[in-house]
Amino acid sequence: MKEKSKFLKPEYLENRELSWLQFNKRILAEAKDKNILLFERIKFLSITASNLDEFFMVRIATLIDMIHADYTKRDIAGMTPREQLEAILPEAKEFMAEQYKTLNRSLLPQLEKCGLHLIRHHEDLSEKQAEYVDEYFRKNVYPVLTPMAVDQSRPFPLIQNRTLNIGALIKDKKHEDVVDIATVQVPGVLPRIVPVPAEEEGETAIILLEEVIERNLDQLFLNYTVLSAHPYRVMRNADLTIDEDEASDLLKEMEKQIRQRQWGEVIRLEVADTMDRRLQKKLMEQLKVDENYVYKIKGPLDLTFLMKAYGLDGFDEYRLPKFVPQPVPGLDRERGIFDQIRERDILLHHPYYEFTPVVDFISQAANDPNVLAIKQTLYRVSGNSPIVASLARAAENGKQVTVLVELKARFDEENNIGWAKMLEKAGCHVIYGLVGLKTHSKIALVVRREEEGIRRYVHLGTGNYNDVTAKLYTDMGLLTCNDAIGEDATAVFNMLSGYSEPPVWNKLMVAPIWMKDQFLTLINRETENARKGKEARIIAKKNSLCEPAIIEALYKASAAGVKIDLIVRGICCLKVGIPGISENIQVRSIVGNFLEHARIFYFYNGGFEDVYMGSADWMPRNLDKRVEITFPVEDEKLKQEAISILRLQLADTLKAHILQPNGREYAKQDLRGLERIGAQNEFCKQAMQKKTKVDESVVKHVFEPITAKQN
Prior knowledge:
The chain is of the alpha/beta class. The protein folds into three domains: about 10-240 and about 265-320, polyphosphate kinase like (2-Layer Sandwich); about 335-500, Endonuclease Chain A (Endonuclease, Chain A), CATH 3.30.870.10; about 510-700, Endonuclease Chain A (Endonuclease, Chain A), CATH 3.30.870. Strands 14, 18, 19, 20, 21, 23, 24, 25, 26 and 27 form a ten-stranded mixed sheet that branches. Strands 10, 11, 12, 13, 15, 16, 17 and 22 form an eight-stranded mixed sheet that branches. The protein has a six-stranded mixed sheet with strand order 2-4-3-7-8-9, with helices on both faces. Helix 17 packs across helix 18. The longest helix has about 35 residues, at about 80-115.
């Protein structure tokens, strides 16, 4: 048996689920921060609720499945699935309590002061408001509702995942000794926020749809007396289990699994904390939920409604002005995209600069008579995707179009099935990737006939081909016609469609083939340089870090004297400040107005700096179980632009949360004596000024610059 590394002792590592909860706490910290505009704070609180839902449906659900299967293998932090669950559930309940404390004690009172009144209970409506609400119910809500009484002849209905419902105890007016349970689903097709006449001019009053329904519940059960009624919500196991080897048609199997998702085991039951104990007990019995998975809520259930409140008219002074992505410097939309790519590689930085060049890349390829073929991977796309429309048009124009649509993209499965069928009808060759692997890479290849012969144009990115999220997520992209990268791109698609792996790769690091080994080689090279007394430096920006082999290599590098800066948005299983192990490592997490999503990796390499970007995080699933691509940035000008991005992120003093030594707590920096620098704000300013590199004066006082390339 292989001896456990001294660098991978359980006490040196953090459990990934507990680390994720810390990430959501960092978002909650933004909701608490009184220096942030009020409506931005309610947006952050809404995001914490959405994140927590997915965490339960996938991560906690997976732990419960492991426990059911008597799986006892310990994670890298030395915890069994049962031990993890026992540690997570109390923290999750504490986190939810903190969410509602933030809402009730801070945000709602502040919203009242700025003229937005949330009427918490229908009993608090004025006479005029009550009349309005009742009329709204009769005209707009009543026709949509389906009341479901439960008795000996009517079984308890399926309560769908994440839907909001109202449970009630009802008594038959003819048989008053019999108390039954009833339930009504709050329809998701209607707006949850219902505006009502305000008491004072210039103010806004709203009430939630469930309160409107609860007020009029007796109209749904005319032959019954409603004894009590309260909202509740269930969360089900939504992790799909697919045996791809046994699935003769992956598309049909995915459709079947999506339907079954609604029947998953209930892993969380949210109830109003004022709910009648008898009603709660009946719900627990019907849903087969024990007390450990019941969450009593002091306020409105499902705080994602706050994202709708964020968009209410009349409160512009309480939210940030919407940033408009700027044209990419040096790129002329009046000229053909392929002519400009031939002249130079083009680096894209979203959302500060437009996603338009990526859309144009596929659109112009679809119309260009010299384009012979287009090949592209799609993981998540927008609901009305211009890229998908261009791919369909290209096929209709007679071009060879191959699209890998990843059907297993979590919670986008149904959307992707629809796109796959549409593209097939248009004449595209649609493939679903490799058995047992998700295809998470972001790559598009255009094959074009030119005077000199066939030329390959490639787009590589860190984010999805989604024109909507490209305005919300920070991502990087590269447009190039480099021959070596073009050859590798062809090899990637041949591997995906024909299972043919090339004997060698030129430039691209591809997982699960050799990306992990190459990252380890790059880290180990810095380690060896440090041991030889040379300057050594690693900077890595990614979403998550929990791959044991990578963490071990980073610990060894730190012990050898390599200065390491990690910018990790979410999960980080590495600990800092361990004597002799991780004293040279700093970890920061930036939580800002945009979702940090780009993966950028820097290695000093004795002064010949290496910069890579890609789709993969340093996680086992990315490096071992997905098709991922990481690509080099070799043009010296573009490389310095990428380094400039890293430098500014390391200089951030406003939005950066720093991982504390020997723990998993994060804290913002004490601003005394520091310049107030927010990286995302600076990138916006930089884009508005049509610059590609940040001004050196912005970072010189707070960050030791990366040494320039040696001559």
